[in-house]
Amino acid sequence: MTKELHADILIVGGGLGGVAAALGALRSGRTVIMSEEFDWIGGQLTSQAVPPDEHSWVEQFGVTRSYQQLRRGIRQYYRDNYPLTAESRAWGDLNPGAGWVSRLCAEPRVGLAVLEAMLAPWRGGGKLTVLQPYRPVAADVDGDTVRSITLRHRDSGREIVCSAPYVIDATELGDLLPLTGTEYAKGFEAQSDTGEPSAPDHAQPDNVQAVSVCFAIDHVDGDQTIDKPENYDFWRKYQPEFWGGPLLGFKAPHPRTLEITERSFTPNPDDDPLLVDADQRRNAGDGNLWTFRRIAARRNFQPGAYQSDICLVNWPMIDYMEGTIIDVSEEEKAKHLKAAADLSYSVFYWLQTEAPRLDGGQGFPGLRLRGDVTGTDHGLAMAPYIRESRRILPVTRIVEQDVSMTVHGNSLSKSYRDSVGIGMYRIDLHPSTGGDNYVDVESAPFEIPLGALLPRRVKNLLPAGKNLGTTHITNGCYRLHPVEWNVGEVAGMLAAHCLNHGLTPHQVQADDGKLEDFQAQLYRAGVEIRWPDVRGY
Q1: Which CATH architecture is the domain 3-51+106-188+388-525 placed in?
Q2: What's the whole-model pTM score?
Q3: 254 pLDDT more than 90
């Protein structure tokens, strides 16, 4: 007999957006069921093993209060549990990995521990039920209303039917959109549709950003070389037309200029972590791939605690461009994900055996896969890094012209009356399955309009991540960790607000008075909805 569960709000997907949605709803007094298909909650921060991509002002403003609590919690976890040096322990903006991509590069398990701690009181109090590992397989829909979602256990096949007045799609690929019949877009929209300068002449729905299977490595004495991967010869010869050389190499297009540049790779450079200035506005930080996304800098810790730095590999050469995993058969999806993993193993083997060294030699046989760091026996990340999802067709669609500095100059982007959050990142599109090179456009600090969280037709389904109402282009700056968190937190708070006041999300967005009441609630909860206007008074 199929088990049935009911709560005020059902959240499908336990990534950053899903966790933030749960916290937003729970703080507002509502009961929540949250499901997650992988063994870890946290999505791109944990199971996908991607250090947070954040804007330059993240230590001061520009993210929600609860996201700052997550960041502070990660730093405090290190202070409480790790053998930091006195200097690193005293470092206010502690960056455990001293990576250049972010001011907070940390091991995935630490992010997981802090997220679990943030949810723990609600689970203990019976307000939150977490179902793992479950994925959605069916939906019961009545007209414009989603009644329930059927979840299936990843391993046993056992099914649970979960119902709730509000359903939040926090899956990585927007999986509830086709299941519920919610209208959505995918891939490139046509320029005739969006008016975006960077869009193509014709829509390309199957042309999506590459997925990547990340992995962690360190470098120790001895020969750690793995067996030659099954498809290594294929990937060793693989060369996209625009790449400037084989994919397995240190030459690649520069994302911003598209000029062919050559990066370096120097394991354990023994640099001073306190001198790393992780500000992508001043330095992209990817010159030395070892330090780019380093998640443990051994000099942050007491001597002997770490044999080596730990480096997170999320580099251009692991971007898998051979096919989309959206709206294909399960067999096709599995084929592409396996091939993406094969590419990552091949990159690692190439690093061990053929990568050019500064001393003129080849290969770094002392490199080790650190699957213990990413929580797997196979050595790679637990989940693929998903950059692009299905996207709702929204009340308000965010287009390139709204955020591009070509349009706005060095100022804020379009201001929305219904702003429910803020963010900042360049429009950063990786090579795609249609054979396109990087698309990288300067963007201005932007707002998140509530209308981008509302499907045009469906009344009680809300997005909580990369499935909000962006385009292929603007997804490039709305897809990062703090924005996903903001979107999820607002979705959870909105669902709870509507239940608490007998409203619908569309009524809140359309009516100035109701909107202002909700925005005031966001403000009290620490959700910034406007960028600071800093001046004397």
Answers
A1: 3-Layer(bba) Sandwich (3.50)
A2: 0.97
A3: no
